[in-house]
Amino acid sequence: MVGVIASASIGYSVRSTLADALGGGASGAIGILLALGLTVICWAFLQRQSLADYLIDVEAETFRITWPTWPELFQTTKLVLTLMAVLAGYLFFCDLIWQAVLRFFSVLAI
To answer: Is the pLDDT of residue 10 over 70?
Structure first.
């Protein structure tokens, strides 16, 4: 997938650079050489054995994941949303208290 994205973006760069090079002179030729060089570098990077081993390991690991069931997902989502609402309320009241304290000592004048 990474190779496809890299190749597509490099291909787009080469195509747009080629279009610029036809009317761009020396700077266009430098752009084409740069795009071709980056294509070769990306290809060489993706051909490394360590990267291939890593991607194979990632794929194998994704098959071992135990995904939650829909009821578990809804339950944990409700828990997170409830805790976020409680935390937001707590911070709101802490802010009100600090605002009152700072107004009392004339530090905050609104």
So the answer is: no
